[in-house]
Amino acid sequence: MKKTLIIRFSSLGDVAMIVPVIRCLCKKYPNEEFIIVSREKFKPLFDEDQNLSFFRVDFDNRHKGFLGVFKLFKDLKKIKPNKVADLHHVLRTRILALLFKLCFYNVKRLDKMRTEKNRLTRSKNKVFKPLTPIHFKYQEVFNKLGFQIDLSKDHTYPTPKILNNFEITNNNPKVGIAPFAKHIGKVYPLDLMQKIIAYLSQNNQVFLFGFGDELKILEKWKSSYKNVDCPSSNSNFKQEVELISNLDLMISMDSANGHIASIYNVPVITIWGLTHPFTGFSTFNSIEENQFTVDRTKFPLIPTSIYGNKKIKGYEDAMRSIDLNGLLFRAEQILNQTSS
Length: 340
Prior knowledge:
The chain is α/β, with parallel strands linked by helices. It has two domains: 3-154, Rossmann fold; 174-339, Rossmann fold (3-Layer(aba) Sandwich). It is 34% helix and 14% strand. It has twelve helices and eleven strands. The strands form two sheets. The protein has a six-stranded parallel beta sheet with strand order 8-7-6-9-10-11, sandwiched between helices. Helix 3 packs across helix 4. It is globular. The N and C termini lie far apart (46 Å). The mean pLDDT is 95.
């Protein structure tokens, strides 16, 4: 059986975004084996296909540092792969790719569109046009390796996962809300987010997602409203994925939870801050009606960066230009469609 290594270490959102492409590969090439090379915590995203396996990288010990990359190469070489797909294209994976190439392996890597991203995010002479969605850039890597997949034709969604650890207390629609992101420039003002939670919890079961210090705020909201739960306080990642796959709607920042929901055919409303859907990082099969962005007539430098980590003076309250009532109206439309 031919084997293909698929390398993608982080972040969670980017790893989730490769799942639709992997589904297409496993379905269209059932007699080939595909091996995900990533961090252990991401393994629950890759348990759907018989011809898909997982190799855990250990960056804390064995694969740590520069010498660890060479140990990782030796470990991966023992698998005897035929092809290598670098879906990360960072220093670690570039070294790995070079080592495999020197041993005459077929290696292809992700085009990160750095020039196009720079044109889109720069302040002067900004070229404001959409970049190719990253899902299709992942697809491109495999087609260069000799596979023939087409996300728009070959992809099918799995059924929702079995809920083993959550009790659904009523028959109301299930709404997930992930109010945080890695960078503050992508976080909807918390007073406005609280209004979203207060409104939607009246007729829906609301689940709040976050981690670390974010849980203090989520727990406070949970105690303030009926029909609100915070699964992130007492569940692991695998259990959260199971729950997310069963939602009727996810409301997320430009962050990982939205990407996870989208790969299970859950409608996702994405709230964009200093980033923008044109960067290519929209959720899988997203539609324009579900993308809520900053008013660019008032804040023309949006997007200021790809990851939302670049602060610009005067843009601190840019997300307040996003229409709260319009967002709630769209959420109601989606939930009504789900229940009808």
